[in-house]
Write a structure and sequence with these properties.
mainly alpha, globular, two-stranded antiparallel sheet
C-alpha cells in the first residue's frame, strides 16, 4: 500500500523514487514485520496464557520437555503471519502475481496449521488432526495455489526444472510440473513442521533460508545479474525478496520470545505456513533443488522420520532412539541448547553451499 502511494507521488516529490528500489523495500519490509511482532508479541502471549492456549507435549518425548515446556502457549505462528503480511502489504507491489501467490500459500497453510493447533488444544494431546487429513488438505490448497500461479504468471519457465552446478541442464517437465510443485510445497511445509520441536530450532534455519532466497529472488528478477550468474531471468520475481525480508523480520521478532526458555511456540500455525512459503519462493525463482540444499536441515529431519517409520514397519526395529532426529540426540544425552546450536551451524554451512551453486556452474 505504501509502495503504491509513494510511487504515485514520485512526479511531485522525487525523493519517493527511492522506494522503487527492491533493496530499500526489502529492508523496510523486514524492519516493519519485526516491529509488528515486537509490538503484538507480549499482549498475544498474555492473551493465550489467560485463555490456556497451551501446547500439549508429546508423552513419549524427552522427560525434560514434559517438565519444562508444559503450559507454554502455542499458536505463536499467528504473530509471525501478522508480521509477514504487514511487511508485504505495505512495501510489496500488490499488482505483482508472485506476491499474491506467496501470500496465498502462507495464509492458507497457516489456517490449516491453526486448525491443527486448535484440535490439539481441544483434545489436550499432541495428535491434532490425522496425518492423512492434513496431507489431503495441503495437496488441495497447494493445487489451487499452483493453478493461480499458472494462470496469473507471464513466465515461460514454470514447466522447467533447473539443476545447480550445470550451465545448460534443464528439463521441461510438461504437465508433470504440477505434481512436482505439489511435492515441493507439501514436502517443505511438513519438513519445517517436523523440525519445529525445540526452542529456536526451526526459526533460525528459516531465517537463513529466507535470507538466501531474498538474494536469489533479487538476482533472478534482475536481467543483468541473472545473465552474469547464468540463471534463468524471470521478470517480476524480484518481489519475492520483499516477502523473504518480511519472513526474516517476523522470525527475528518471534525469536525474541521463542529463545530458550521459550515464552511461546509457533505451533503448526507458523511451521506449516513458513515451510510452505519457502517452497513457494523456491518454485517462483526456479531454484527448487537449491532449496533442498539450503534447507537441507529440514530435509534431514523429514528423512529421519520417514526412515524411522519404514524401518519399524519392515523390520520392527527403530533406527533412531526417537524421531525426528533432533530428539534422537536429546535421548543420547545432548542438552537441548547443544542440539539447537549445532543444527544451526549445519544450516549455516548448507546455506553457504547453496549460495555457492549460483556461481559454480
Amino acid at each position: 500500500m505504501l509502495f503504491s502511494l509513494f510511487s504515485s507521488l514520485v512526479d511531485i516529490f522525487s525523493f519517493f523514487n527511492v522506494f522503487k528500489y527492491l533493496t530499500v523495500r526489502t529492508g523496510l519490509s523486514m524492519f516493519t514485520s519485526m516491529i509488528v511482532v515486537f509490538v503484538i508479541g507480549t499482549p498475544l502471549i498474555n492473551f493465550f496464557s489467560s485463555k490456556q492456549i497451551h501446547n500439549p507435549i508429546r508423552e513419549d518425548g524427552p522427560t525434560e520437555h514434559i517438565v519444562k515446556k508444559i503450559g507454554t502457549p502455542t499458536m505463536g505462528g499467528l504473530m509471525i503471519l501478522l508480521g509477514v503480511f504487514s511487511g508485504v502489504l505495505l512495501w510489496g507491489d500488490l499488482l505483482n502475481p508472485y506476491n499474491w501467490f506467496l501470500i496465498y500459500i502462507a495464509g492458507t497453510f497457516g489456517l490449516l496449521g491453526a486448525y491443527d493447533d486448535y484440535q490439539k488444544i481441544k483434545k489436550n494431546n499432541s495428535s491434532g488432526v490425522s496425518f492423512k487429513f492434513k496431507i489431503i488438505i495441503q495437496i488441495i490448497l497447494a493445487l489451487i495455489g499452483i493453478l493461480i500461479l499458472y494462470f496469473s504468471s507471464e513466465s515461460n519457465e514454470l514447466e522447467n526444472l533447473y539443476f545447480p552446478f550445470f550451465k545448460n541442464l534443464v528439463i521441461n517437465l510438461g504437465w508433470f510440473f504440477i505434481p512436482f510443485y505439489l511435492f515441493v510445497l507439501v514436502g517443505s511445509s511438513n519438513a519445517v513442521n517436523l523440525t519445529d520441536g525445540l526452542d529456536g530450532l526451526a526459526t533460525v534455519p528459516v531465517i537463513l533460508v529466507a535470507a538466501c532466497f531474498a538474494f536469489i529472488s533479487y538476482v533472478t528478477g534482475n536481467i543483468v545479474f541473472s545473465e552474469y550468474l547464468q540463471i534463468p531471468y524471470i521478470r517480476g520475481v524480484g518481489e519475492g525478496s520483499i516477502f523473504c525480508g518480511s519472513m526474516i523480520g517476523a522470525c527475528l521478532g518471534f525469536l525474541w520470545f521463542n529463545a530458550p526458555p521459550a515464552k511461546i511456540f509457533m505451533g503448526d500455525t507458523g511451521s506449516l505456513a513458513l515451510g510452505g512459503s519457502l517452497g513457494a519462493v523456491g518454485i517462483i525463482t526456479k531454484h527448487e533443488i537449491v532449496l533442498a540444499i539450503i534447507g537441507g536441515l529440514f530435509v534431514l529431519e523429514a528423512i529421519s522420520v520417514i526412515a524411522q517409520v519404514v524401518s519399524f514397519k519392515l523390520t520392527g526395529r527403530r533406527i533412531f532412539k526417537m524421531a525426528p532426529i533432533h530428539h534422537h540426540f536429546e535421548k543420547k544425552g545432548w542438552p537441548e541448547s547443544t542440539v539447537v546450536i549445532r543444527f544451526w551451524i549445519i544450516s549455516i554451512i548448507l546455506a553457504m553451499i547453496g549460495l555457492a551453486t549460483l556461481k559454480l556452474r
